[in-house]
Write a structure and sequence with these properties.
Radius of gyration: 19 Å
Shape: globular
Number of helices: 11
Mean pLDDT: 91
Oligomer: single chain
Helix content: 40-55%
Structural class: alpha/beta
Low-confidence stretches: none
Distance between the termini: 37 Å
Number of domains: 1
Order of helices and strands: EHEHEHEEHHEHEHEEHEHHEEH
CATH class: Alpha Beta
CATH superfamily: NAD(P)-binding Rossmann-like Domain
Largest sheet: 8 strands, mixed
CATH topology: Rossmann fold
Strand order of the largest sheet: 3-2-1-4-7-8-11-12
CATH architecture: 3-Layer(aba) Sandwich
Length: about 350
């Protein structure tokens, strides 16, 4: 019998995370034993997700599920679930770091209309009309909340899981096309407390993190860290600020952008999961390098999907990545010492 594979998917209870789980089930043969470990903040959500995935793949006798309850906005929670995972598994094959959040407050509808009329393709690729709260701190750790959820928690989790990822584990970071309009990196505000668009800037920081560690971790630990993004697809991250009419309008604009030549408007979360799952299962490190490349879910005007790669970091990004990792390591060490957790290399 084939060796059991273990996949960890953070934030799998909806949207892209659920799409990743479904595409993973469609891509790994039924003859291969598979355990999917899901994370969510609440037990009800994770149990509902497991029920839906069992219905999605009813004939997989070698499929099992596990879960951990994770709050990315708490260092204590991240350390606890890392401890649980290390006690349960000797090796994890795939880690999809999908969970994240934006601290959105609404839409600047005047700006949205102007952007759509002046350039519909760019308006739904690099939207500048989403309003974000400035200055929010996490309740327990007093750290920039969006930064903690989207960047810091992922890094701490990876550091804690190195031993069960060594020699063949693959980590899939999930960035965003919107990182292309991020503010310039600010070493004095790595927590993005003063950023006017912390969600977008956190995705850029995730790219800097990838630039800083991907080559080193591949050489030292045998861990391949791929940077991917889902293109533009419909998820729940901004859904509370849209009604049925504006949701319909948004989806219509997605198709218009595709017809106007955008390669990124894949529309569905299942299509958006193409690049992350491809990176986990099919990418060949010798041919599909892990460093300085981003792999995105793309499609042609008819909707035929494919994986599109882009060169990631310019010279300034590479310099910023070194500074960012130094600051991130310093912050992480302080937090681990505060938590009496001294395992830090």
């Amino acid at each position: 019998m084939a060796t059991r594979r273990v996949a960890l998917i953070t934030g799998a209870n909806g949207g892209l995370g659920f799409g990743i789980a479904c595409r993973l089930l469609d891509s790994i043969p039924t003859s291969v034993p598979l355990t999917i470990v899901l994370t969510a903040r609440y037990l009800r959500k994770v149990m509902d997700t497991i029920s839906k995935l069992r219905k999605y793949a009813p004939n997989r006798d070698l499929l099992s599920f596990d879960y951990v309850l994770l709050d990315l906005g708490s260092v204590t929670s991240v350390l606890e679930i890392a401890h649980q995972l290390k006690s349960r598994y000797t090796h994890i094959d795939y880690v999809f770091l999908n969970a994240g959040a934006g601290d959105f407050t609404g839409v600047d509808w005047t700006a949205a209309v102007v952007e759509v009329l002046s350039g519909p393709k760019d308006a739904v690729t690099h939207p500048r009309f989403k309003r974000e709260r400035v200055g929010r701190l996490s309740s327990g750790d007093a750290i920039g909340w969006v930064f903690q959820v989207n960047v810091l928690a992922n890094y701490i989790l990876l550091r804690q899981l190195v031993d069960i990822l060594r020699k063949g584990g693959r980590v899939i970071l999930i960035s965003s096309v919107e990182a292309e309009i991020a503010n310039p990196f600010n070493k004095d505000d790595i927590q993005l407390i003063h950023s006017n668009q912390p969600y977008v800037d956190s995705k850029k920081e995730l790219e800097l993190l990838h630039t800083a560690i991907s080559k080193k971790w591949q050489a030292e630990y045998g861990i391949d860290i791929y940077l991917t993004h889902p293109g533009i697809c419909h998820t729940s991250i901004f859904a509370e600020y849209l009604n049925w009419f504006t949701t319909f309008g948004m989806l219509l604009l997605f198709y218009i952008a595709r017809w106007l030549g955008s390669p990124w408007h894949v529309v569905s979360s299942y299509n958006g999961a193409l690049a992350p799952v491809w990176a986990a299962l099919k990418a060949i490190p010798e041919e599909n390098k892990v460093w300085n490349v981003s792999y995105g879910s793309a499609c042609d005007w008819k909707g035929t999907t494919y994986v599109k790669n882009d060169t990631l970091a310019n010279d300034q990004d590479q310099k910023d990545a070194i500074i960012f990792l130094y600051e991130l390591d310093s912050l992480t060490k302080t937090l681990l010492e505060r938590s009496n957790q001294l395992e830090f290399e």
